Amino acid sequence: MFFFFFQAEDGIRDFCLSRGLGDVYKRQERIPLTMAGHDEKEGTIDLIYAAVGRTTMLMDQMEVGECFADIVGPLGKPTHMEGLKKVCVVGGGTGNALAYPLATGMKKAGVEVDMIEGFKTKELVILEDEFRAGVDRLYVVTDDGTYGEKAFTTDKLKQLIEEGNTYDEIV
Fold it and tell me: Which of 124, 129, 123 minimizes the C-alpha distance to 115?
């Protein structure tokens, strides 16, 4: 989904849906959202979410061209990238949606990025193509071995370190 764009120039930051989805939904709760990407020319942001609660289920019913009443952000502290040369970003399940802007943002900032994406099973794999295009090396693991390597993310991280990979930071 694409919505209004707000740029955080000092690092990767989170945004918060502040006041519902248009006039019909003025009483929506505030929910944290992570910007997964943006198009500065079009003035839009990409949000990745799972329709699991009231607000995200309403978001899922929105049509192209509809918008939020407003979005607050950027919030939180910017991601520290100064001095980093090589990192490993580890994401599991829906947490990969949060790892995506972090990993690709670090790569765009000139940091070498290994990404470990973990899922329970093949049917739950998300963002594989996006990660492949946005990081240096992508490792996909599934708990049941139906896709990628059969392993947990922690097992893959341990293997990479034992193979001699060193990281300035593991996120």
Answer: 129
User: What is the spatial distance between Cα 13 and Cα 32, in angstroms, rounded to a whole number?
Assistant: 11
User: CB within 8 A of 73, min separation 6: which ones?
Assistant: 6, 8, 13, 14, 15, 16, 35
Preceding amide of 74 cis, omega within 30: yes
pTM here? 0.76
Q: What angle do CA 92, 94, 99 make, to 5 degrees?
A: 65
Distance of CA 165 to the CA centre of its chain: 24
As a whole number of angstroms, the distance between CA 112 and CA 7 comes to 23
Using one digit for the tens of pLDDT, what is the confidence trace for 21-44? 544 455 556 777 777 777 778 777
